[in-house]
Amino acid sequence: MTSPESRPPGCAGYAPFEEELVNAMNDFVNAAEAPDFDTAGIVRRARRKRATAIAGIATALIVAGGGTALASINSGSDTSKPAADSTGRDTTLLYTFDDGATLPIDMGGWDQESVRVQFLKMRVKGEYAKAATGTCKPGSVIGVSPHSPQTVDTGDTVKVTLCAG
User: Fold this and answer.
1) Its domain of life (predicted)?
2) DSSP code at position 44
3) How far is residue 143's CA from residue 65's CA, in Å, rounded to a whole number?
4) pLDDT digits (tens, 9 = 90+) for 149-161
């Protein structure tokens, strides 16, 4: 397209093609509707998605943590306990959560590594000793101190007695 200054003298305005092109572009610009964005709705949906994602993740973490704690509780079967506990030591630990709720955990028959992992989750220290009895599986828990009905809080030390065989 040529500029009006570069036209030969005597030509006023645009050539028919140039004029038609300019009119077509102006019609296009004036006729095209600008998109209408609902910015408040977009922000609201983004916040809702974010809140839902955070709630889902928090729920998954709580369920995973609670599931781990529940999995550590003996579910009523005596398959993990020693055949006979002639020592008279109690193996049930009563853990107190930060909100005051308590959870009994029967550690009878657990091995030292399982106890160590559970203590890490509960943020409790463990001291381990072995006692000789002939009625238990070597390396399994035959007693904890303090035991139920005494409670154990975060940071406490629990003495664990393992079967020496």
Assistant:
1) Bacteria
2) H
3) 25
4) 888 988 999 999 9
